[in-house]
Design a protein that fits this description.
It contains 9 helices and 10 strands. By secondary structure, it is of the alpha/beta class. InterPro entries: AAA+_ATPase, ABC_ATPase_HisP-typ, ABC_transporter-like_ATP-bd, ABC_transporter-like_CS, MetN_ABC_transporter-like, P-loop_NTPase.
Length: 255
């Protein structure tokens, strides 16, 4: 069953055409990894899914919700976009936690404020999620008292607290020191095993090989190639994909 369907998504910033007629379908419990060089449109694509960036053209469908780009912002459209965002968990490069709230308060905030959940129910769910991401002993800590990896795990728990249909990750480990990356990826792997639908923009090739049901390679605002992790990493068809993988492999060796 399809969860997300993107049809002919276009996005330009002035003269710069960042996305060119992107078509993508993601099915329930599928993990899709998007990779590609900087400036290829990966992060913009994620932001267009939630209308954090308004596409210049195309249609975004999430479950039964459908939003067409470029239409007047009337009440119905605003309500649909709000529902779309409520059903999408977004984990950014930067953690974006409330610095004046504890880990527990950060996680329970969304359900209480946005979903109007009962505070005690939201608190119990937040405790469950923080335990799930390995932070049972850090619930009363403020972001400044947590490592980068711990903050990102709080951000994942916060996104999960809204019980989204899909989780979107925009290079979630890029701001972390190497030794902290593993703990975040481990949480993401566990979510994938549990059947969470996920779209992940990442340069973590080992994660993509291990977890992705499908890998998409983007460049110049286009989907150049897509396939299983085995097809993309071991048998890429496009020369541009082959060059990118060679470059990434060389970077890893140099490091």
């Amino acid at each position: 069953m399809e969860v997300i369907k993107l049809s002919n998504i276009k996005k330009s910033f002035k003269e710069n055409e960042v996305l060119k007629d992107i078509n993508l379908t993601v099915n329930q419990s599928e993990v899709v990894v998007i990779m590609g060089p900087s400036g290829s449109g990966k992060s913009t694509l994620l932001r267009c899914i939630t209308f954090l960036e308004e596409p210049n053209g195309g249609i975004v469908k999430l479950g039964k919700m459908e939003v067409e780009a470029g239409q007047p912002l009337n009440k119905k459209r605003k309500d649909t976009i709000r529902e779309l965002r409520k059903n999408t968990g977004f984990v950014f490069q930067q953690f974006n936690l409330f610095p004046h709230k504890t880990a527990l308060e950060n996680v329970q905030e969304g359900p209480i404020v946005i979903k109007k959940s009962d505070p005690e129910t939201a608190k119990a769910h937040a405790i469950e999620l923080l335990t799930k991401v390995g932070l049972a002993d850090r619930m009363d800590h403020y972001p400044s008292q947590l490592s980068g990896g711990q903050q990102q795990r709080v951000a994942i728990a916060r996104a999960l607290s809204m019980e989204p249909m899909v989780m979107l990750y925009d290079e979630p480990t890029s701001a972390l020191d190497p030794e902290l990356i593993r703990e975040v990826l481990q949480v993401m792997k566990e979510l994938a095993r549990e059947g969470m639908t996920m779209i992940v923009v990442t340069h973590e090739m080992a994660f993509a090989k291990d977890v992705a049901d499908r890998v998409i390679f983007m460049d110049g605002g286009l989907i150049i190639e897509e396939g299983s992790s085995d097809e993309i990493f071991n048998h890429p068809k496009e020369e541009r994909t082959k060059r990118f993988l060679q470059d990434v492999t060389q970077e890893i060796v140099l490091e």
